[in-house]
Amino acid sequence: AQCATGSGLTAEPVIDQGSSAQASEQTPGQSERPAKEPDPAPQSATPPGLAVVPFLSAELDAPGESAESQKQPSTTGTELAAQILARLGKARGLKLIERGQLTKVLEELALAESGALLAEGDGSQLPQIGRLLGAEYLVLGRVTPVADESKYSASLRLVRAESGVVIGTAYGEGSLKDLANQLAAETLRVLQIYLALDNPTSP
């Protein structure tokens, strides 16, 4: 018997030894036959690659700011992305893309201002970024300070890099620590559901 979630992110196979023991019993005078080997546990698919892009910060969307400056990820957005990545690292069955590797690829594509990935909903660079990173999924988002400067609101999109299709969204409010916990948990929940589908490559 096996126990699995279908997504492959957390479950481990369990082999029932009882049926094998019964199969090895012999009756008197019966020629001995080797016990039937249990079927091998199913091999999990290659862990999906996931990258968390530094978040845009709406605090730059102020009167007088240029459209170009509003595409820049802020220190807050970079820190939130790093915290989400750290929390996702506690989950099994994911191949996470390190920040340094992501930064290098964005720079090679002249997208060091990684917020440009979200500008006007343009996802034309996503397939190339996914291929260079070895990431099937990208996390994109925006963070905005609220009245209390120690708290923020943030929205997140989980995107399939190859097609640019949004497979899930999330929203949260609170400190950066609280946001990271909320958004990381929701990212995992959505990804588990999506990977459990019979054909997850289909939008």
Which descriptors apply to this entry?
single chain, 203 residues, alpha/beta, six-stranded mixed sheet, 5 helices, 29% helix, globular
Q: How would you summarize what this structure contains?
A:
It is built from 5 helices and 6 strands, in the order H-E-E-H-E-H-H-E-E-E-H. It is of the alpha/beta class and 203 residues long.
Please explain how this structure is put together.
Residues 1-5, 11-27, 35-44 and 60-70 have low confidence and may be disordered. The radius of gyration is 23 Å and the shape is globular. Helix content is 29%, strand content 18%. Strands 1, 2, 3, 4, 5 and 6 form a 6-stranded mixed β-sheet that branches. It has 203 residues and is of the alpha/beta class. α2 (75-88) packs across α5.
How would you classify the quaternary structure? single chain
Which sheet architecture does the biggest sheet show? Answer: 6 strands, mixed
Order of helices and strands: HEEHEHHEEEH
End-to-end CA span:
32 Å
Helix vs. strand class: alpha/beta
The share of residues in extended strands comes to: 15-25%
Low-confidence stretches: 1-5, 11-27, 35-44, 60-70
- The helix content, as a percent range, equals 25-40%
Tertiary shape: globular
Q: What is the number of beta strands?
A: 6
- Whole-number average pLDDT? 74
* Rg over C-alpha atoms, rounded to the nearest angstrom: 23 Å
Number of helices: 5
